[in-house]
Amino acid sequence: MLGKNINGYTVIDSIGSGAFGHTYKVQKDEKIYAMKILKPEAMSFEIQSEGFVRFQREIRALQKVKSDYVVEYYDSGEWIDKSVKHYYIIMEYIEGMDFDRYLKLHRTTFIKREDLMKDIFSQILKGLFDIHKVNIIHRDLKPANIYITIHSKVKLLDFGLVKMLDYSTITTKGKLVGTPLFMAPEMIEGKEIDYRSDLYSFGVLLYYIYTNKYPFTGENVFVLLNNIVQQFPKRISDTFPNISNAMENIILKLLEKQPYLRPFKDAKELEKVILDIPLLQVKVSLHKIKDKSFPKKRFFVRLLHTEKTEVERYLKAGGSIDGVEYPANYLPKYKNQLSDLKKFAIPFFFDPSTNRLAYSKFADTKGLVELPYVYDQYNRITPKHFSSLENIRKYTADVLNWQLRWDVDFLVAPFHYSKTLSDEWLSVDLKLIEESFDFKEKKNIKKEIFAGICIDIEDLTDEENRLELINKYSRRLPDGFIFYINNIYEKTTNRAQLFAYIDLLLKFKQLKRPLIAARVGNLGLGLMEVGIDSFSSGIASLTSFSEQTLLSNRQKGYDMERKYYIKDLLVSLKIGLANEILERFPGYRCSCKFCQNEYRIDKIYNCAKVHFLQVRSEEMKLINDKKSRTFIELAKSAKAHLDKIKKTGIVLPPYNHIETWIDVFSEFRR
Ligand SMILES: [Zn+2]
């Protein structure tokens, strides 16, 4: 081709080749241009049947675009080479490189430079605006069609050309060319398109810049096109955690399948929004954040609606409670209880139980199904539900509003159970935290927001994974954390798992936020000693969280067996067994104001719960006053007592977890 003269244009260099044609550097009358020669077989049916006149008319329409940010089309023509008719376009020649190449060379620095990003994005949107102004749609916005000149000026290329081309030529080749990756779903479906289809492509471009990945891919063109129409993109912050929530939301909106859900009046409005927001996460230095740890160690009672009278009895006798954790269901039954708590100024929060909604059992659980954030009483919630920003926001608002209605002391962002770090739910939960804080800001809510972390411990027995988890959760730092960890409960005997759990909590403690180790039973006493703020468990029941309980059939809800806590043994025992031990060994009887050294079945049954509250509050006082024996000493002595009892022939439930405590806590004292 070099040296060839085409209608007065001399070809002096080859610039590049695309799916639809080839571009050359040409010269005419001392001036340099770019000439794009289109492949005849790539032309659309209309152009092929109506011929050059139609082609020229289309190009003339495109010539109406006048913009500093868009390449100029000067001329068009027809050229017959070896008896094959070609159409060409003469365009402004630009020196620089296309954005595709630019990103390959500079992406890692580009995505750190907010000023540079804003400048380039703003120029692209200005170019789009100028194209749209004369009622033209670009239709093919992608990095290869964005030129960055040597002076960092943006020029959009190839606008409007796709309209004259036949897309089936790329699909029959079956090879992935760049263009369809950026194509809006409505274009693929042959529906009406407008400027919002270009905004969609701009969304894909932003997604690509941040993640170096496309929101949708496929092993062949057919799968890709189908995925663009059907699938939802993976979260950007999973790949690029430094993106700001505001920017992530804009990209989510631009990638909406329905054009009306990309809510920008025009490219100019979008430009204004982007210039107004942070593109990258505002970083908080750990050294500068305020320490929000609880001023003293607290024990939260996970309270049931059936326990109102017990609590009243305890409080009226002068007892005190550090705080209360309510499971979300059975809420209507709490009404009176809540006013009592207010009267005694006892702080409380709600476990929103959102994790339970992801299991089919929720549909059979009274109270749960009636929560205002259950949208479908027969279908459990799945991560798919959170593909659209609209759904994410509605759910967040419903979960938080419902807690606000009961005037809780602090809010808990919705959370779900993740089996591993790569679980889709984890990524959803992180987004829900971001949106919870957005909601708080928009509604000017003063209450703090805690994050619930609900995950299996096994994946976290790898220290790398613990670090990854803390990195994820410190991105948008919540005001506190509540840990519901599967496989960690009072009777955990797996040493590596218990070690991982304690180490995880200690790592999170560096974030200077209060930590609540939820549903860990008496194990919590040990956690207080290593520096955790608080723990929760039921009144001598509900001492564990597990995925199994999310699935289990509990027809009568929390109608659990009452147990009696024997302090010296660090265990809660069935009433019959407790009676047997107290009768044989008077030394274990409790002298608190409720028990008064009782051992008879009906008596200890009657005072089991108030006694537990009383003893636990005394234990917490000793811990806070630093007068408690160390947890290891307590555990060692409990084990010795239990061994002694066992020798007398009394059948005890397994207590080897106490040995696990001794071993693992010793590790942390070193
Ligand atoms: Zn007692």
Describe, in plain words, how this protein is organized in 3D.
- The protein is an alpha/beta fold.
- It has four domains: 5-92, 2-Layer Sandwich (Phosphorylase Kinase, domain 1), CATH 3.30.200; 96-276, Transferase(Phosphotransferase) domain 1 (Transferase(Phosphotransferase), domain 1), CATH 1.10.510; 291-551, Queuine tRNA-ribosyltransferase-like (TIM Barrel); 563-669, no CATH class.
- It is built from 23 helices and 20 strands.
- The strands form four sheets. Strands 10, 11, 12, 13, 14, 15, 16, 17 and 18 form a nine-stranded parallel β-sheet that branches.
- Helix 12 (308-316) crosses helix 21 (601-624) and helix 20 (575-584) packs across helix 21.
- The longest helix is centred in the C-terminal third of the chain and has 24 residues, at 601-624.
- The protein binds zinc ion.
- Zinc ion binds at residues 590, 592, 594-595, 611, 614-615.
Please give a quick description of this structure:
The chain has 670 residues and is of the alpha/beta class. It is built from 23 helices and 20 strands.
